[in-house]
Structures are given as structure tokens and as C-alpha cells.
Design brief:
By secondary structure, the protein is of the alpha/beta class. The protein has 3 domains: about 1-100 and about 225-300 and about 405-479, FAD/NAD(P)-binding domain; about 100-220, no CATH class; about 305-400, Alpha-Beta Complex (Polyamine Oxidase, Chain A, domain 2). The protein has helices at about 25-40, 80-90, 125-130, 135-150, 165-170, 175-190, 200-215, 230-240, 285-290, 365-380, 380-385, 435-450, 465-470, and strands at about 20-25, 40-45, 60, 65-70, 75, 95-100, 100-105, 110-115, 220-225, 245-250, 255-260, 265-270, 270-275, 280, 305-315, 325, 335-340, 345-355, 385-400, 420. The strands form 5 sheets. The protein has a 7-stranded mixed beta sheet with strand order 8-7-16-17-18-15-19. A 5-stranded parallel beta sheet has the order 10-2-1-14-20, covered by helices on one side. Helix 1 (about 25-40) packs parallel to helix 8 and helix 2 crosses helix 12 (about 435-450).
Length: about 475
């Protein structure tokens, strides 16, 4: 049965706000669909791949066909809109909250760093900073001062190539080299997915303020306990359908149809025209530029993707004895153990390396050897374990590189076409390219389409001291 009329006048329930087509089934498109449903639209979501979820995807294990995440995704306590969407869809219980951050230093020294619930922000970070055993007291003090100076700074959001410094330049003048290498570099690259040599200091300030200083629960890690393909590709989609949405996968949109006045009339799948009153385009930036070149011109050097590499390892026994680990001073950055043994007895763990451009000069065997050696150096069980198999997954454009001035060229949700809206973690949301940024973009697009003033869940509250420290941070624009 065809769920659309091919051309002609839309047919929808009398109480519907109209027919909305969401193009793209990543987190941005899924979030847009959820909010458009709440606004009374008849919602049809079209995803070109066979499963929704976008980059929050999984592949099938060679051992037993179970789902394995292509790259580990985590959220933080400050990701209020992502967490709200998960709660609404009944997925909240599938996120494990880790309040303790495990850092493993260059010599294998372990630091269990836990923010204090009993101290007001920003003092709640004192136990976390003091727990970093790989730093001297002087280095810890310098780090704390650096975070406060960064939070209180004011940086012009100018055009690309302007005077906004990169994180590396700003930090080099204010922080000890060892603190940069063993804290700032792994934290920034993990949070923003890009090297400190490339990211603008404005984006780093966002991470420091919202991810660490703003609230005692801001830095909590929210780790999915089910495969991403199950959570978002199946369960979130099932929830949307239960709310009345039509979700079609394997549905590649080839064109956006518009009338002489520039208003969108529908989307095209090959020869089939699917009529629409509202269209939300929630696809990667290059795909959006191809579909609506006059609305979003072909991207230039301002829009650059940054790669992230996941190294999947299956050993004959468990080797990781902590819920997660941040390895500092090594090629490997984050380590996550698998939840269960597989059919052949293999125990999975995943090493995630952000900003992996030119990693080991592209030599995959050398990368695998380096990662295994990193694990053997910090996890005693790895030294006696047998590696059964491995798989390396690299997404060359995993995130938008938040370079100096990028905020001036990220497009808003609204476009010159009055009923066409943009969503995606590359759209202007005030957030970097993250799951939270993706969900925010979808909500902003849905709010603009429905005429609401704002469709976002509030950030974690900042107390008076934090507000005085950071000043005003403007919310994202809707237009």
C-alpha cells in the first residue's frame, strides 16, 4: 500500500496541522519527527538506509550476528535534550550513568575522578581535579585556573580565518605543556572530535562551561547499555510509529520539489512525488547542498569533517576491569568494555580515537599493534589474553570540525523557502557536532515549522556563582 498521494492535493485528518515529511532518519530527523507529531502534524519520515539512527549505528558481529556499535557514543549529564528524548521514548533506562571518570596516566596510574554532589558548582570539580594522580599539585592548580580563565573569557565569533585563536594557541600561552598533553588534548578531542590544533577556543569554552563547570551532574557519562542500532534504529522508531508517525527506510529522496514562488510542494523518490506541506531536511551537509543548492550553496572549506576511528577487539577473556577508561599520553584515547561474551567466547572491547586524521600514517596493522600494546600496558589481563579477531572502523567525516569562525557559517533551521527547514548536528544550535546538537537541531526545526518560539528543554541550571563567572551565553537562534 502506498502511504503517499503522488502529487495532487494532500489528504490528511481534519485536525492535522498538515503533512510534514522529514528527510533523514538520524537523531536530528528522529527528534524533528517526535516534535512535529506533538505539534499536530501528520509525520512521514524517510530514511535512505535500511535502518534509522544515522551515525549512531551498529554492525552485525561475525561470530553470532549480534549488533556491535560501529563507534561508541556517549552523552553527558549536560545533554538535556538528548536525555529528554530518550526519556519520552522509554529509553532512559538503557543509559548507564557513570559519575566517576576513570583516567589512566602515562605510567598506568589510575585515577577515579568523581565530582562532588555536596559542593556547589564550580567547586564540585575539586575532588575530580585532585583525584588526577598523574598531575602534581602545581599542575592541578594550573589546570583549575585555566578552566576558570577559559570560562570567563570572551571570544569574538568572527568569520573563518579571523582572529579567534585555536585551542592549541590559547592553551600554549596559559597552561603547562604536560597539562595540555595529558588533560586538554584528550578531553577536547574526545568532546569535539577534532584536534586542538584546529578547533576554535569558543567551542572549547562551551565544553568547559556546560560540560564541567555549570552543574554537579554536567560531567556525568551516559553510556548506552544496548546497541545503538537497537536503541535508535528499532526502539525509538517503534515509539514514533506508536505515536502515529510513518517511518520508511530504504527510501532515498532524490529531489526537493518547489513551485515558482520557491515554496516546497513535496519530495521526489525517483519518479514518485510525495506531497508535503512542510519538509525538514535532516541529512548531512553535503547531501543537503546537493538537494537544495540555492538554499544551501555547495559547502566550501569552512565545512570540514573530522574523522573518528573505532578499533574493535575480541579477546578470549575480559581485559577491561573498569566501566570505561580515558588513556592519556597514548594513541588510544577511550576504552569501553563490551557488555556480554559472544557465541565463540570472544569478549569485546572498543578503543575510540577522535581526530584520527593521518593516524599511524594510515597503516592499519601498525594501528592495531599500537592499540593492543596500549591495552597491555594499562590492563594486566590484556598481557596474557589472546586476541581472537579485530575490526577497524573509521568515519572520515564523523563530526563537523568546529574551527575558528564556524558559528558564523552554520545555517539556521529556517531557510528562504518558507516551509523548508534544516536539521542536523551541522546546523546552528550553539552546540558542537554531538548527539545533543543533533537532537537540538531537530527540535529547533520542528519549532520553526510549527510556529513555536522555542522547542528546547532547558539546560541544567547554573547557580549565581557560575552565572557571574561565565556571564551570559546566548541561546541558539531559530531563524
Amino acid at each position: 500500500m502506498n502511504l503517499f498521494r503522488s502529487g495532487g492535493v494532500n489528504q490528511q485528518p481534519a485536525d492535522s496541522a498538515g503533512r510534514a515529511i522529514v528527510v533523514g532518519g538520524g537523531l536530528a530527523g528522529l527528534a524533528a519527527a517526535a516534535d512535529l507529531l506533538a505539534a499536530g502534524f501528520e509525520v512521514h519520515l524517510l530514511e535512505g538506509r535500511r535502518r534509522c539512527g544515522g551515525r549512531a549505528a551498529s554492525f552485525e558481529s561475525a561470530a553470532d550476528g549480534s549488533l556491535v556499535d560501529a563507534c561508541q557514543h556517549v552523552a553527558m549529564g549536560c545533554c538535556t535534550n538528548f536525555l529528554d528524548l530518550c526519556q519520552r521514548a522509554g529509553l532512559g533506562d538503557l543509559l548507564r550513568r557513570d559519575r566517576t571518570l576513570w583516567f589512566i596516566g602515562p605510567e598506568g596510574e589510575r585515577a577515579a575522578c568523581t565530582p562532588a554532589n555536596w559542593l556547589p558548582a564550580p567547586f564540585h570539580l575539586a575532588p575530580l581535579l585532585l583525584g588526577m594522580k598523574h598531575f602534581s599539585l602545581g599542575e592541578k592548580t594550573a589546570l583549575a585556573i585555566g578552566m576558570l580563565r577559559l570560562a570567563g573569557g570572551r571570544f569574538a565569533s568572527a568569520a573563518p580565518g579571523s582572529n579567534e585563536p585555536t585551542a592549541a594557541v590559547w592553551l600554549a600561552a596559559r597552561q603547562p605543556e604536560r597539562v595540555i598533553q595529558l588533560f586538554w588534548q584528550p578531553v577536547i578531542e574526545s568532546a569535539l572530535g577534532e584536534s586542538i590544533d584546529h578547533v576554535g577556543v569558543t567551542a572549547v569554552r562551551k565544553v568547559v562551561v556546560d560540560g564541567f563547570l555549570a552543574h554537579p551532574q554536567a560531567a556525568d557519562l551516559l553510556v548506552p547499555t544496548r546497541p545503538l542500532g537497537d536503541m535508535f534504529g528499532e526502539q525509538l522508531v517503534h515509539w514514533l510509529r506508536s505515536q502515529g508517525a510513518t517511518v520508511t527506510t530504504g527510501a532515498l529522496v532524490t529531489a526537493i520539489e518547489r513551485d515558482g514562488a520557491g515554496r516546497v510542494t513535496g519530495v521526489r523518490r525517483g519518479e514518485e512525488l510525495l506531497a508535503a506541506d512542510v519538509v525538514v531536511l535532516a541529512v548531512p551537509w553535503r547531501a543537503a547542498a546537493r538537494l537544495v543548492p540555492d538554499v544551501l550553496p555547495p559547502v566550501d572549506d569552512s565545512f570540514v569533517g573530522s574523522p573518528i576511528t573505532a578499533v574493535h577487539l575480541w579477546f578470549d577473556r575480559p581485559i577491561v576491569d573498569v566501566p570505561h577508561a580515558v588513556l592519556v599520553g597514548r594513541v588510544s584515547q577511550w576504552v569501553f568494555p563490551g557488555e556480554h561474551a559472544e557465541a565463540d567466547g570472544g569478549h569485546h572491547c572498543q578503543v575510540v580515537i577522535s581526530a584520527s586524521r593521518g593516524l599511524c600514517d594510515g597503516d592499519r596493522e601498525r594501528l592495531l599493534k599500537t592499540v593492543v600494546e596500549d591495552l597491555e600496558a594499562v590492563f594486566p589481563a590484556a598481557a596474557t589474553a589472546t586476541l581472537l579477531r579485530s575490526r577497524i572502523v573509521t568515519d572520515p567525516t564523523a563530526v563537523l570540525s568546529v574551527r575558528p569562525g564556524i558559528e558564523t557559517v552554520r545555517p539556521a533551521a529556517m531557510t528562504p523557502a518558507e516551509n523548508l527547514y534544516l536539521a542536523g548536528d551541522w546546523v546552528a544550535t550553539g552546540w558542537p557536532s554531538t548527539m545533543e546538537g543533533a537532537v537540538r537541531s531537530g527540535r529547533l526545526a520542528a519549532a520553526a515549522a510549527s510556529g513555536r518560539s522555542r522547542g528546547l528543554v532547558a539546560d541544567l541550571p547554573k547557580n549565581l556563582l557560575v552565572r557571574l563567572l561565565v556571564g551570559s551565553m546566548r541561546p541558539p537562534q531559530q531563524a
